[in-house]
Design a protein that fits this description.
Layout (H helix, E strand, L loop, with lengths): L5 E5 L4 H12 L3 E6 L12 E4 L5 H14 L4 E3 L6 H11 L6 H8 L1 H10 L7 E4 L2 H11 L3 E5 L9 E3 L5 H12 L8 E5 L5 E9 L2 E12 L7 E7 L5 H15 L4 E10 L2 E8 L7 H9 L3 H9 L13 E7 L5 E8 L1 H5 L4 E6 L6 E2 L7 H4 L2 E7 L2 H12 L2 E6 L3
Parallel strand pairs: 1-2, 1-4, 2-3
Antiparallel strand pairs: 5-8, 6-7, 6-8, 9-10, 9-12, 10-11, 11-14, 12-13, 14-18, 15-17, 15-19, 16-18
């Protein structure tokens, strides 16, 4: 048997977006998986696994107990948004370090989080719950327009839409309700004050109640009225970090989080940070990978350390910048061609990765009919010395990548 500590990972995710998380955890820990499908790409990084229906809390708990009977687990961790609450429940049942189930529920429910932010003086958006179109209309009369409608408990900007005029409300409420109906926890809709300003996230690590902001991620969004994230940049020397770090830490504290990695989203309104939400897990869209490229800090390893009751190493070992840009078609349709200029890619060391996630003849569907799962064809990552250099390189590389769709007639 290995002398390394053993950690249980719940729901490792897909190889493209989350493979780096499992690989980095496996560099320091022996790993067993609780997963919904038989492992494939995960096999080099694990010592054992159990397959369960991850949507069934009872089955998930039983599967975790089964692994705990066979192995001396040091901790349980997940970077899957949908399994934050069941993972906390499992850790509690096994007597392993974790935030409470109630805290994880608060993180998953935007309405509860807004209440806690207000109670603790964290600058956030005004928000009202709406279960019917009539209630949504009354909420916009109270909060004013423009307003944002969103599912109370979902993720990935799915179902999130801005309303500028009263006549837009019925279609917007239907869009938000469709997203909310996919939630296993809360199917209601929130109507919120629109925060007008650039969006960023703060990548945080909390240990025994003390939160350290390790990086700022600057975000690019698609066209209104939707909030599709089209790209991110991380700069180790970003001057915004000292300004947003205290608000992010206050939001984490307001929710009662004592340990873990958090992806805290906010907007800068008139230059001042206002909270959107706290995600009590690693950020998606390869953000943890960007943080490592820019700073050298290993967020998946930190998440595993904290799940095992250990203090993470947050010492930066790099001072650079990195960025990702998502590849979307101009119009919805069937993907007929996708390629990158190979001579350019072969002779461009700062082009870190080009990743296709859709194949020829796949349908690509943009909002409002689609979402990030149906619209993206792929992504690419570049590195550089500064945000400005990374942004320039993202533009240069984008000119060398082609996506063609045929519009359905």
């Amino acid at each position: 048997m290995s002398a390394r500590p053993l950690v249980l990972v719940v729901s490792p995710g897909d190889e493209i977006y989350r493979g780096y998380c499992l690989e980095q955890v496996a560099d320091a820990y022996d790993v067993v998986l609780l997963t919904g499908t038989e492992p494939s790409w995960e096999k080099p990084f694990i010592v054992d696994h159990t397959v369960v229906d991850l949507s069934d809390p009872v089955a998930l708990l039983a599967g975790g107990r089964s692994l705990a009977e066979r192995y001396d687990l040091a901790g349980v961790v997940t970077w899957d948004e949908w399994n934050l609450v069941p993972t906390a429940r499992l850790a509690h049942a096994l007597g392993l370090p974790s935030n409470s189930v109630e805290v994880m529920r608060a993180c998953r429910n935007k309405a509860v989080a807004r209440t806690l932010f207000a109670r603790n003086g964290v600058p956030s958006a005004a928000s009202m719950r709406a279960r019917t179109l009539l209630e949504a209309g009354l909420a916009t009369m109270t909060l004013g327009l423009p307003a944002v409608l969103k599912p109370a408990a979902f993720a990935g900007s799915i179902g999130v839409i801005r309303v500028d005029q009263p006549e837009e409300l019925p279609a917007a409420f239907a869009h938000a309700s469709a997203g909310a109906s996919r939630s296993r926890e809360d199917t209601s809709v929130l109507v919120e004050e629109y925060l007008d300003g650039p969006e960023v996230s703060v990548e945080c690590v909390t240990h025994r109640g003390t939160t350290t902001a390790v990086a700022v991620t600057r975000k690019s969004l698609g066209g209104a009225p939707y909030f599709e994230e089209t790209g991110h940049t991380v700069d180790a020397a970003d001057p915004l970090l000292p300004q947003v770090a205290p608000v992010a830490a206050a939001a984490v504290k307001a929710l009662g989080i004592t340990d873990g990695v958090q992806h805290v989203e906010l907007r800068l309104v008139a230059g001042k940070p206002r909270l959107i939400e706290v995600n009590a897990r690693l950020g998606g869209d390869m953000i943890g990978h960007l943080v490592r490229l820019a700073t050298g800090i290993d967020l998946p390893r930190a998440a595993a350390d904290l799940a095992c009751g250990r203090a993470p190493d947050l010492t930066p070992t790099r001072s650079a910048a990195a960025g990702i840009r998502m590849l979307y078609p101009y119009t919805s349709g069937t993907l007929t061609a996708r390629h990158v200029n190979q001579p350019f890619a072969a002779h461009t060391p700062w082009l870190h990765r080009v990743q296709w996630i859709r194949e020829a003849d796949d349908r690509l569907v943009l909002p409002p009919d689609g979402d990030l799962f149906t619209a993206r064809a792929g992504f690419y990552i570049v590195t550089g010395r500064t945000t400005a250099e990374v942004t320039e390189r993202l533009d240069l590389a984008g000119d060398e990548i082609t996506i063609i769709t045929s519009v359905d007639r």
